[in-house]
Design goal:
Helix content of chain A: 25-40%
Largest interface: A-B, 49 and 49 residues
CATH superfamily of the largest domain in chain A: ATPase, nucleotide binding domain
Oligomer: homodimer
Strand order of the largest sheet of chain A: 5-4-3-6-9
CATH architecture of the largest domain in chain A: 2-Layer Sandwich
Order of helices and strands of chain A: HEEEEEHEEEHEHEEEHHHHEHHEH
Radius of gyration of chain A: 22 Å
Structural class of chain A: alpha/beta
Strand content of chain A: 15-25%
């Protein structure tokens, strides 16, 4: 079997070890350049493309502002071109690229690689996003949830020092991921841990997702832009609630809050308080002892969210007398989801490496 | 190994099978009377004690109205006496009783067998309920969550025809359990799936659990008694919001609703609607395709809760386009939690039977 792994260039000799009685042992290590995988965070406000080697180390990265409201065919062509560019620029032989982990919002039919959402436009509903990108690139493409991928990304990057934790993720929207014993929690269809779409207000209005009073409508970037527009002293931020680029708008609010603007800070703290309520719900259901705050929007205002969410969880979680819950911020800025996508592709294509090693 | 199991009376010969070339095979089966386990559902409004044999079949049962506000020492003495009576009446040799699975509300320190709640009185906080009952009975006692036990009980009773599902449980309070691949979901401390204590109202008042706007305060038996007392046409039910026996009070409301009283029916439907909101939250986080409604209070008004919760889940769950979610009612009336407690004790004491069988 070792012979076979060496023939495939996956492991290489790393010297000789001491003999344990017979002939000296040959030490082996993974060959970092033996294979590569690409991860793509794909959403209308931001796309991040990364390439990782066989050990999961990032070897190349690019990002662009997102595909906005482009129709699917054009958006995917743009993504495919960026992936091609990155492979070319990295100087990696194409037959060493295992494939692409494409991560984006849900709901999804993960097996079929199809989106089950009308967001951002109706064109995307049931669009075969993974098969189509696979066709364009001539590479295997798997589809996964961005927040689940961010959780695996944070784990892989060593942010968590624990193999069991929850991740709260905020980009254009709010999502979540749970990792149990190093594996993404999947449920029936990998459409779980959607903390942006839990009801926090019994009398709340309808959400685009079909539920009522969802957290997203009180705390996500779009909701905050609407709140900021209704706040006279924040007129100077020149926010437009009709602009689909909600992450840039949110970034302006977060910067103003960071610079000490009291009205902006109050808005961010309110969002964090509401996110804290949903984090308490997540902990009262999953009962874990670590929450990682990740994603580009949380990266933009990390310290405020971290302190407020931690305070809420410490005060309100059902199991708080059984064990504490730590809340930490991401180590990866905006990139955890894309890295997680690449790692999920490595794991998917290299499961034959998942061998039972005695003892 | 078979010899050892036979010596312990756990398996017995069940005849001879056809030869597959060598000598005829000896067929073995579990010896139902080889060992027994006791399950106790313990709460202030209702106690149920069951005994099951080695195959998990119920061989004896008793129940009593609960220990109300008795101090812990007296309450546990009463439970111990009932367990002794049941063992005696069943005519089971004491050394064949593996122990007791004691199931009740949380939060708990399950490992230590200690309650971490001030409910129903402050005396219970950090009271070593499992060690103390073990001392009284001279038998091993494990502590577990009532709703988690109900989930395992329903699974064991064959209610689910699936080994992965969620259980919503209502007795005096509201809880939940999740079973994944036949095992109770535990999280960090077995204090998860507490759907009675998820926030459904951002502006809601404080709950006894320390959180705010919890489902329990809108939908549990005590909340419904308060709502009924405030409803003039329900004065004839003679409900007293100060009476600790909330399950009897709730039972009167459920009976009136079942008999067609429009005001009572409106109250139960409102509770079911709110429970449906929390069930949607549970599904949007755990993403499962089956919910079992269990516990004595849901047994009392099952059809209304079943139809309303199913409607809410079908309309509102995030993954509804990926797969349907069925909602079914318990097959066990009030007993799933006690049976689950006994089954958890069997599993805990007989893990040496969990052997790798080739092929």
């Amino acid at each position: 079997m070792v012979r076979e792994l060496m023939d495939h260039g996956l492991v290489v000799e790393a010297g000789r070890g001491a003999s344990t009685g017979g002939k000296p042992r040959t030490l082996l290590r993974l060959n970092p350049g033996g294979r590569y995988a690409v991860g793509v965070l794909f959403e209308r406000n931001l796309c991040v493309v990364v390439m990782v080697d066989l050990t999961g180390r990032q070897v190349a990265r690019t990002s662009f502002p997102g595909t906005s409201l482009l129709p699917p065919e054009e958006a995917l062509s743009q993504v495919a071109a960026r992936v091609e560019d990155l492979i070319g620029a990295a100087g990696v032989e194409r037959d060493k690229v295992l494939g692409v982990g494409l991560v984006t919002y849900g709901p999804q039919d993960r097996q079929a690689g199809v989106l089950l959402t009308h967001q951002p436009t109706a064109d995307w509903y049931e669009y075969p996003v993974a098969p189509r990108l696979s066709e364009l690139l001539g590479l295997p493409v798997l589809l996964d949830n961005d927040a689940a991928a961010a959780a695996i990304g944070e784990y892989w990057l060593g942010a968590t020092r624990s193999n069991t934790f929850a991740c709260v993720y905020m980009a254009s929207g709010i999502g979540g991921g749970v990792v149990l014993d190093g594996e993404v929690y999947r449920g029936a269809s990998s459409n779980g841990v959607e903390i942006g779409h839990v009801t926090v207000d019994l009398d709340g209005g309808p959400c685009d997702c079909g539920n009522y009073g969802c957290l997203a409508n009180y705390a996500d970037p779009h909701a905050m832009i609407k709140q900021a527009v209704a706040t006279p002293s924040l007129g100077r931020l020149r926010l437009d609630p009709a602009d689909p680029d909600v992450m840039t708008g949110f970034g302006r609010i977060a910067s103003a809050a960071g610079a000490g603007d009291p009205a902006a800070r109050a808005l961010v703290e309110r969002s964090a308080r509401h996110l804290g309520t949903a984090a308490v719900t997540m902990m009262s259901l999953f009962d874990l002892d670590l929450i990682v705050l990740a994603g580009p929007s949380l990266a933009a205002a990390g310290p405020i969210y971290q302190s407020v969410v931690e305070e809420e969880v410490r005060r309100r979680t059902f199991a708080r007398r059984a064990h504490p819950v730590r809340v930490v911020t991401s180590v990866s800025g905006s990139d955890a989801a894309a890295i997680g996508g690449a790692v999920l592709m490595l794991q998917s294509e290299l499961t034959f490496l998942d061998l039972d090693v005695p003892g």
